Amino acid sequence: MEEEVVLKLIEKKYHIAFAESCTGGLCAARIINVSNASKVLNASFVTYSNEAKNKYLGVSFDTIEKYDVVSIEVAKEMAYGVALNTEASIGVGVTGVAGPTGGSDLIPLGTVCFGFYINGALFGEKIQFGNIGRNNVREAATDYVFKRLNELL
Fold first, then answer.
1. Which of 117, 129, 135, 152 is closest to 1 using CA atoms?
2. pTM of this prediction?
């Protein structure tokens, strides 16, 4: 999936940047696994703490407080912030609860929110992968990012 994304990005002359929390850099790593990744990726951020999301991506503390850090609103701000700060055409934000701790009744384990900024359009999605284990949630979320990017590109 990531090979298709890289080819589409090269074809369109787009650059991409990732702002990752629960995936911890897996999205950027998957792009870097592909030959010619340097043609489409300049920089990405792993922003695990709320402070890092604010400092490096411009995510508002008010947004975090109002909606929770695991929310579509925060994921969208992450996507916009990483695109803006890296001058990329596409920004992707990922924030979630991979487990095995941290879930709640409102945001159960396996909940991941995604933000996509593509040439000025900004939208978000929430997926519930279930309590399938920390690394399985991270991998499933990364797979989802590349599936959606292939569809959107």
1. 152
2. 0.97
